[in-house]
Amino acid sequence: MLQPVSASTDLPADPPAAPAPVLQVSTLSPFAFPAFRIIWIANLFANLGTWAQSVAAAWIITTEQSSPLMVAMIQVAAAFPLVALSILTGVLADNYDRRKVMLAGMLLELAGGIFITVLAFAGLLHPITLIASVFCIAIGSAIVTPAWQAAVGEQVPRAHVGSAVLLNSVNFNVARAVGPAIGGLLLGAMGASWVFLLNCFCYGSLIWAIWRWKRDLPERRLPPERLFEGVVAAVRYTQHSTVTRVVMLRSFAFGLSASALWALLPLLAHEHEEGSALLYGYMLGALGVGAILGSALVRRARAAWGASGLISVAAAALAACLLALGLTNTLWVAFPALLLSGSCWIGVLATYNTTVQLLVPDWVKARALALYQTAIFGGLAAGSFMWGHFAGTMGVSGALSAAGIMLGVTVALLFRSRMPEHVDTQSLARAEDAEPALAAAGFNTQHGTVLVAVEYLINQDKLPALIHAARPLRQLRLRNGAQQWQLFRDLEREGVWREMFLVESWMQYLRMIDRMTLADKMVLDELRALHAGDQPPVVSRNVSYLAMNEAQGFSLRRHPESL
Any idea where the Major facilitator superfamily (MFS) profile domain is (predicted)? Predict the structure, then answer.
């Protein structure tokens, strides 16, 4: 806040404050920020407990001699809520305090974990109750995930977001490599009940870290969006956003082919002449080690090749690894291929996540991340089923080779579908700019279409530039909430052009203003630079009579004689 000027001029001026040191961006630089560091460590314990618990859950299903369908239902119960609910929970994360949304979901997950633990100690845990508990935990996870992903930018400055996303991926891979071993040891020494109890304590540490995380909340100038309204806004944004459309397309295609690695790895280990559970563990460990080693190179590779280039190179290398795994049965080839596959896997997924984090504005970030997660998990689920079926008809080696070929073809076909490297998504405008008209009009803000017209005066020599600027302007308006958009030429007044767009309601129009970013301002500035008038372009805002009827408490449908 600016301080008042002192009336006295005799005192010397205060020396200028020394500029705050700028922390150099590196792979480990996010650890310099206490909030991220504490949450990362707590999340490591939570992930270790989750993977240890997965071993105990699989053991219970096995010892109960459950059918293959029952075994499959564990995966369905764990995955279905994340796919079905993520867009809805993304709306919550974009409109409410993400820390509170995470805590609500985490407490639900903890309640499910405690329920499993109590049943296990009482000897009442069997496959049906286990599946029901896993489903409850998965609902909590669906609530947490979009808010968790979007909150990374609140824990570290924007320049360090890419490294923070990468470190979270490393966290997951370290836990995936170590957690099952901890679960196996504790299962053999003390039984499944104590593994479930360990998971509750580990997850409790993450809840504690989120609970003590304090930060400045962004000011919200408009009421939260309703669920359906928020879903429609996310779909509309995705339809007219190059970033989200390309990320969803490429991530789904990648997951569809690359899923063969995870789906067929147990079969590959089993069919080897030295095949055993120990070999499968070593193979999983190689993937984890490769992911950890590759994380050190992702930031430099992205700086050198760009996000799209890194994704293409890593996916092509993974395609070669799948071919190598399918065409050879030699462990001296398989393990280097698995190490490289782990590096490629983390490179692709971390880059997709970082792209959405940096190139999507904050008002829709959680929903965009939820849609990306739905696309990648949808590809992985469909691909796992497809490659499992093909393995039964053409063998594991043939299915892996086919997956490698398909991934290589996908990389070639989508190579030109490139993502922007930089979009300034910093919020710009304030919704209060349009509030005087709202206060004076006295109409219902939730009903009645709004028609906005912007009148430009364009000289003849500027027409090609106007047509060139029309496409990004149309995308901007539709992406931020307009239902329809057109650019019209006035046939009676030479050089007059009108941009006209429809918005669902006055409240949605206020949201459009509030969603403006610096990148959007650049688009508008490019168009307004073509305006030849002495005065700024004339803007007129018109609201449907239905809004007046709603505000005055009557309807023309009830009083047709008023027509």
Answer: 35-420
Bridge partner residues of 450 (DSSP): 503, 543
Q: Are residues 96 and 203 in the same domain?
A: yes
Predicted confidence at residue 486, as pLDDT, reads 95
Say what the pLDDT of residue 431 is: 47
Read off the pTM.
0.82
- Number of residues in the chain: 563
60, 192 in Cβ contact below 8 A? yes
CB 291 within 8 A of CB 169: yes
Task: Cite the beta strand spans of 116-160 per DSSP E.
Answer: none
Residues 99, 120: Cα–Cα separation, whole Å: 31
Same-domain check for residues 460 and 491: yes
Residue 184 CA to residue 54 CA, distance in Å, equals 10
Would you say residue 420 lies in a domain? Answer: yes
- Beta carbons within 10 angstroms of residue 484's beta carbon: 12
End-to-end CA distance of the chain: 55
Here the tokens at position 495 are 């050089």
Predicted local confidence at residue 274, as pLDDT: 66
Query: Scanning the structure block, which residue is given the tokens 């309601």?
Result: 505
Which of 290, 413, 409, 414 has the alpha carbon at shortest distance from 352?
A: 414
**What phi and psi values does residue 115 have, to the nearest 5 degrees?**
-60, -45
One-letter amino acid of 420: P
Non-local (6+) Cβ contacts of 391 within 8 A are 264, 267, 398, 399
Q: Please say whether the beta carbons of 450 and 505 come within 8 A.
A: yes
> How many independent structural domains does the chain possess?
3
**SS3 of 541, please?**
strand
28 contact partners, CB below 8 Å, separation of at least 6:
163, 167
- List the structure tokens of 404: 């490698």
d(CA 67, CA 65) in angstroms, rounded, equals: 7
SS3 content of the chain, % helix, strand, coil (to 5): 70, 5, 20
Tell me how far CA of residue 91 lies from CA of 3, 118, 229, 368, 521, in angstroms: 39, 34, 9, 10, 25
b/e code 384-402 from CB counts within 10 Å (16+ = b): bebbbebbeeeebbebbbb
Q: Which residues pair with 452 in a beta bridge?
A: 501, 541
> Is 491:202 a contact under the CB 8 Å cutoff?
no
- For 134-161, the pLDDT digits (tens) are 888 889 989 999 999 889 988 998 888 8
Banded pLDDT at 205 (limits 50, 70, 90):
very high
Tell me 481's DSSP state. Answer: T
- 234 and 209 in a common domain: no
Nearest one of 262, 254, 301 to 409, comparing CA atoms: 254
Q: Are 105 and 130 in contact (CB under 8 A)?
A: no
Q: Which 3 state secondary structure label does DSSP give 17?
A: coil
Q: One-letter amino acid identity for 62?
A: T
Q: Which two tokens stand for residue 131?
A: 């599946």
In whole angstroms, how far apart are CA 23 and each of 30, 147, 349, 504? 10, 26, 26, 45
Regarding whether 247 and 209 lie in a shared domain, the answer is no
Domain range spanning residue 93? 29-213
CB 509 within 8 A of CB 447: no
